[in-house]
Amino acid sequence: MPEEDLQEAAELVANAKYLIALTGAGVSKESNVPTFRGEDGLWRNYNAMELATPAAFANDPKLVWEWYIWRQGLIAECEPNPGHLTLAKWEETGLLKSLITQNVDGLHRRAGSSNVLEVHGNLWALKCLSCDYHGRLSAPAEGIPECPDCDSMLRPNVVWFGESLDSEVMARVYAELEKATVCLVIGTSGVVQPAAMFPIMVKQRGGTIIEFNVEESRLTRSVDYHIQGPSGETLPALDSLI
Ligand code: BV8
Ligand code: ZN
Fold this sequence. Notes:
Layout: H1 3-14, E1 19-23, H2 42-46, H3 48-51, H4 54-59, H5 61-76, H6 82-92, E2 96-101, H7 107-111, E3 116-118, E4 121-128, E5 134-136, E6 154-158, H8 167-179, E7 182-186, H9 198-204, E8 208-213, E9 225-228, H10 231-239
Parallel strand pairs: 1-2, 1-7, 2-3, 7-8, 8-9
Antiparallel strand pairs: 4-5, 4-6
Helix pairs in contact: 6-10, 8-9
This protein binds ligand BV8 and zinc ion (ZN).
């Protein structure tokens, strides 16, 4: 990564009128949370494209719950890394106005970020298939959880493929995209829609995109700066120049 890129990017971040961030699984990689499409990806072992769908759950809720319980057990052992902590610091100092994450691991909040928009839901959140009960696990589920109000089966309150993103969350996301002058794009392959469109919408309004990734993504050709390297190192490195 040429030093001048980082220096220029640091000036853009420090002087941003309205800075937002979009994160994906890569920001949690250094916390030992597997990414979705990497060599250790969740997809390879569990073919999540088949598991993270309403049809898979209807067909075999036990198998889908086993996958989520396995992920809950894994993520319960993970800690936020310096990349999460830097983003939380930038919110604390008023620099970062909002954080839009595709991740369901909850690590941004655990790092201290509070203005977090979880567009794909949260691994610990539950909702009932039959009534409007919503709950939250504090530890990995033990078997298929049942609704305390109507005894129906509960499901993870995450957004599966083919499901719409929560309309209230999306309204807040679009409001942030409207105001953003600089959008950080951290650890995402840019494969999943509509999240992959968010940085493009900022750019179309004249905003600047700064990408932090270990390799090129589907978004790289649209970004203004590509800061190469693990975000657990590159975000603190940029912070040290502010
Ligand atoms: C919807 C929750 C519409 C569940 C997830 C054909 C073409 C285009 C789109 C579609 C299509 N067919 C279907 C669609 C739509 C579909 C979609 O986008 N499919 C893709 C796969 C083709 N999208 C949907 O279905 C969405 N809903 O569109 O609804 C609709 C309209 C009307 C009415 C009804 C419906 C819902 C999508 C949400 C799916 N849910 N997760 C769960 O987690 O169990 S998505 C899942 O992928 C995760 O949330 C994850 O965050 C997300 C995106 O992946 P990434 O975060 O980018 O992770 P990935 O592994 O891919 O990449 C990691 C990156 O990190 C890499 O670039 C790597 O280089 C980098 N990295 C690695 N280490 C580091 C690093 N970077 C920095 N530092 C490091 N150390
Ligand atoms: Zn219920």
